[in-house]
Input
Amino acid sequence: MKKFSILFLFTVILFACGEHKEQEQAKDLGIIETHPVHGSITQASFKVWGNCETCKDNIETAARFKGVTFCSWDTATKVCIVTYDSRETNIDAIEKAIAAAGYDNMAYKGDDKAYEELPTCCQYERKK
Output
């Protein structure tokens, strides 16, 4: 019984360390939070830079592709919340699509040409 208890404790510690590593990797990618919703449906939130309602429309449109079931970007907090089917896409693809539209996020710098073509109101101060 003592061996079983030690093995169980070791398994719990190993699982906890794995969860912590995944959370750290997510933070490195600029993901604020990610969690499963149901089955393969996952919800994530991450920062995307922009300014206005036009930015909101552009960001949400860029993120709407196969596998993404919901996207909402908040102009005040700069947080984008997406719900997606992990069998069809992933958070990396979503962040890349938003960057391709000209919007910087923690994982990717927005495409320079797309950024320059944004309306003046959408041209936020970019990090160097």
Q: What stands out?
A: The beta strands are 31-38, 41-47, 68-73, 79-85.
